[in-house]
TrEMBL record, chain A:
Lineage: Eukaryota, Metazoa, Spiralia, Gnathifera, Rotifera
Protein's UniProt keywords contain Metal-binding: no
Protein name, UniProt field: glutathione transferase
Keyword Transferase among UniProt keywords: yes
Protein source organism: Adineta steineri
SUPFAM superfamilies noted in UniProt: GST C-terminal domain-like (SSF47616), Thioredoxin-like (SSF52833)
Gene Ontology molecular-function annotations: glutathione transferase activity
From TrEMBL, chain B:
Every GST N-terminal domain range: 2-79
Family: Belongs to the GST superfamily.
Gene Ontology terms for molecular function: glutathione transferase activity; structural constituent of eye lens
Organism per entry: Adineta steineri
SUPFAM superfamilies assigned to the protein according to its UniProt record, in alphabetical order: GST C-terminal domain-like, Thioredoxin-like
Key word Flavoprotein present: no
Name of the protein this chain belongs to: glutathione transferase
Domain GST C-terminal: 81-205
Highest taxon of the lineage: Eukaryota
EC number: 2.5.1.18
Catalytic reaction equation(s): RX + glutathione = an S-substituted glutathione + a halide anion + H(+)
Key words, A-Z: Eye lens protein, Transferase
GO biological process: glutathione metabolic process
């Protein structure tokens, strides 16, 4: 078994999907969390001067979704064959498209602007996810009938947007069910109960 | 063998990496290309109203990177194990980061603003990303000229095709990056790629 070290800030941000994957898999790792003032001293240790970075037996991997996909494959949370993995990857990319367009606004704007942007962009995301869930026969999950890292990524992102508008998923019962499936997973539930409560 | 149908515009863009993968693998596929005025009639056929889409035995896959990664895995161009595949994916993400700032410079309609954006991108933004790519190539490349593990992977093919777009605007953009220049030269030398490049349609983008 390799030794894993995850380097990130003390935030959910771009690392929480990886922490959720470790939790769902029941696998150990060192969860290194830098304070903002601490990170500049460590920046040059990271291949691209950025975090998250996953260190696997001393070899460093940057890029949050590549880290997540690697661990998901190691721990059978990526999809059961190449084609299912491609469906899962396509769903993950669709969530990431939303993150790229909405989160810069989320980080900077006032509440009213945030809510407006969220309403507009989440409509597109949820419509797309419903379409893909149907195409890929997602049964209580986004793809197929078992937990994948697409469900965990969706869960973490909606955690943040539900904080802006708690009713945002009300018209999407199938997507609400996906969140329920994540929360029903015993290992994930235990992790969610004990993890630091962070808004982002 | 599954049947493959790739649908995109009549251009390289976000589909060319997949066409290069098929070419290296020597695998057949239906290469559907829409002109700009043909596309609106087909938009509703695509899961997310976007292209490229890969149809594999009737199952439609959107998202260009997911498509390319799937094909690379099918044809052994993705990295030889999970960890190597992760390094390839990290390089791909970094290439993608490099390309993000380029797209707005192409679509800007105001000529003066376009020139300013383009100058800023090539002068300040792109060099930082190219430096990052050289760092990863030296970290993961085992001393060779491919990005990961001394063999051709789809990361090399993606860099090849996106860099072609940059070079089309700014011919000297790789002048300070000899490792990246050598990487592209290695890709072009591969017999199946040289053959493909010679015969493929010449398009605007």
């Amino acid at each position: 078994m390799p030794t894993y070290k995850l380097h990130y800030f003390d935030l959910r941000g771009q690392a929480e999907i990886t922490r959720l994957i470790f939790a769902a898999a029941g696998e150990k790792y060192e969860d290194i969390r830098y304070k903002r003032e601490e990170f500049p001293q460590h920046k040059s240790e990271m291949p691209l001067g950025q975090i998250p970075v996953l260190e696997v037996d001393g070899v460093k991997l940057p890029q949050s979704i590549s880290i997540a996909r690697y661990l998901a494959k190691e721990f059978q949370l990526a999809g059961k064959d190449n084609l299912e993995q491609a469906k899962v990857d396509a769903v993950v990319d669709t969530v990431t498209d939303f993150v790229v367009s909405y989160f810069p606004i989320h980080m900077k704007a006032d509440e009213a602007t945030k809510k407006e942007a969220l309403n507009e962009q989440s409509l597109k995301l949820f419509k797309n996810l419903q379409t893909l869930q149907e195409f890929y026969q997602g049964n209580d999950f986004l793809v197929g009938n078992h937990l994948t890292y697409a469900d965990l990524w969706f869960y973490d992102i909606t955690e943040t947007v539900l904080g802006v508008d708690s009713t945002i998923l009300d018209k999407y019962p199938n997507l609400k069910k996906v969140r329920q499936s994540v929360e029903n997973d015993t290992k994930v539930a235990a992790y969610l109960k004990d993890r630091p409560k962070l808004p982002f | 063998m599954p049947s493959y149908k790739l649908t995109y515009f009549n251009g390289r863009g976000r589909a060319e990496v997949s066409r290069l993968i098929f070419a290296v693998a020597g695998e057949k596929f239906e290469d559907v290309r829409y002109e700009m005025d043909q596309w609106p009639a087909h938009k509703a056929e695509m899961p997310l109203g976007q292209i490229p889409v890969l149809e594999v035995d009737g199952v439609k896959l959107p998202q260009s990177a997911a498509i390319a990664r799937f094909l690379a895995k099918q044809f052994h161009l993705a990295g030889k194990d999970n960890f190597e595949q992760a390094k390839v994916d990290a390089v791909v993400d970094t290439i993608d980061d490099s390309f993000k700032g380029f797209v707005p410079t192409r679509f800007e309609k105001d000529e003066a603003k376009k020139e300013e954006l383009t100058k800023k991108y090539f002068g300040e933004e792109l060099p930082k990303h190219l430096q990052n790519l050289e760092t990863l190539g030296k970290l993961y490349g085992n001393g060779g000229h491919f990005f990961v593990g001394n063999q051709l992977t789809w990361a090399d093919l993606l860099f090849y095709t996106f860099a072609q777009a940059w070079i089309g605007v700014e011919a000297d953009c790789l002048n300070n990056f000899s490792w990246l220049k050598k990487n592209r030269a290695e890709v072009e030398k591969q017999p199946k790629i040289a053959e493909y490049l010679k015969n493929r349609p010449q398009t605007q983008f």
